[in-house]
Amino acid sequence: xxxxxxxxxxxxxxxxxxxxxxxxxxxxxxxxxxxxxxxxxxxxxxxxxxxxxxxxxxxxxxxxxxxxxxxxxxxxxxxxxxxxxxxxxxxxxxxxxxxxxxxxxxxxxxxxxxxxxxxxxxxxxxxxxxxxxxxxxxxxxxxxxxxxxxxxxxxxxxxxxxxxxxxxxxxxxxxxxxxxxxxxxxxxxxxxxxxxxxxxxxxxxxxxxxxxxxxxxxxxxxxxxxxxxxxxxxxxxxxxxxxxxxxxxxxxxxxxxxxxxxxxxxxxxxxxxxxxxxxxxxxxxxxxxxxxxxxxxxxxxxxxxxxxxxxxxxxxxxxxxxxxxxxxxxxxxxxxxxxxxxxxxxxxxxxxxxxxxxxxxxxxxxxxxxxxxxxxxxxxxxxxxxxxxxxxxxxxxxxxxxxxxxxxxxxxxxxxxxxxxxxx
Length: 424
Fold this sequence. Notes:
Mean pLDDT: 93
Oligomer: single chain
Strand order of the largest sheet: 9-7-5-2-10-1-11-15-19-20
Low-confidence stretches: none
């Protein structure tokens, strides 16, 4: 059976959790393949909202085996808290599998993330200060601790002592911070976290590839989004992993020939959290309406999101990078009251037109959007469930987006709940 990838095509917060939840009923496995608890999915089921950070959205479906893949970085305290929080609401998490090859977020990662971001001052990157970047840096430097190390206390302590000597020197000499205790860290990770996580640890690469052979249905669920990708995003204002389709392959261990469907998720408008370029950003009453109607505050951080009009230039690039087979547009209903809706179809910078994303950051930072404008539909879409019931103005908008992206729009979200969507 085919393997499906669901990923974000903008700067995150597109509503990937909702699509994953919709598709989970058809799946046997749902796999989180990268990122950490710096990204959250909000899923609304029967009027009840679930904010998930690490555990895949498929956990809300009893027939699904949720998997945290090797490409994820894990704060074990956060993972356990999320398990307990879901259990308190009647969600069974015993099916969860965690890759032994996933890397552990350690206390020194969090401390370094915080002090480094403060040290950058006005040049800060806008990280969530949760240790994600430093953990991936240690992974690349080959000094990281992995989930499987929780199963071997001797190896865990040896690795910890080696790396902590270096980290404490940096904290003390560069940032004037007190050293961290190896004994305290080891006690928490080996005596408090390991007993809870050990039953969940699995060889997820073997598990998933056996599932492919057995023709099981697998969904790979990304966090963050294309333009936060370490290689393809608006560097350096990016995350430290690869949320793109290529990252789904390395972060799950499933080979590329087994992927047959890549679904990109995009909002009907655009948002961004933190620093970085944003050509279609708005600052007037339109911004206030988008924030208020879209409830544009971070799932994990509570930070207000920056807002703007839909950017088709970005989406064309995302379609190319990810080899998208289709697009799911979310939050179309947020645009219900607008007299006019806009779509950026190109940029202008220093007198030159750009129909694709400029490769040079200096050009992109100065890019001014060239818009196409459309009349709004001025009616409530939240109860619409059939394509034939969508107003012609909304259909025209969707069809134009599809033409601009070069990929069919197959589903449109018209509200936060599981059942609020329209097949196109």
